[in-house]
Design a protein that fits this description.
- With 68 residues, the protein is mainly α.
- It has one domain: YjbJ (Protein Yjbj, Chain: A), CATH 1.10.1470.10.
- It has 5 helices and no strands.
- Helix 3 runs antiparallel to helix 4 and helix 4 packs across helix 5.
- The termini are close together.
Length: 68
């Protein structure tokens, strides 16, 4: 799992990859997430209709794929 500080610090780089992976996340969603893991999880839950546990699994998989 990415450290919260790394997620925030690298958000501008990660944001593009997140938008490619999750096309339902709007630019506004991504701006509001701004590297905040809790907000990110909430947006995944809302936009993809998944439970928190599933959103956490999705985000953890995404984080593993990032080279940070």
């Amino acid at each position: 799992m990415l450290n919260e500080d790394i997620l925030k610090g690298k958000w501008k780089q990660i944001k593009g990859a997140a938008q490619k992976k999750w096309g339902k996340l709007t630019d506004d969603d991504l701006d509001q997430i701004n590297g905040d893991r809790e907000v990110f999880l909430g947006r995944l839950q809302e936009n993809y209709g998944v439970a928190r546990e599933e959103a956490e699994n999705m985000l953890e998989e995404f984080e593993r794929d990032q080279s940070f």
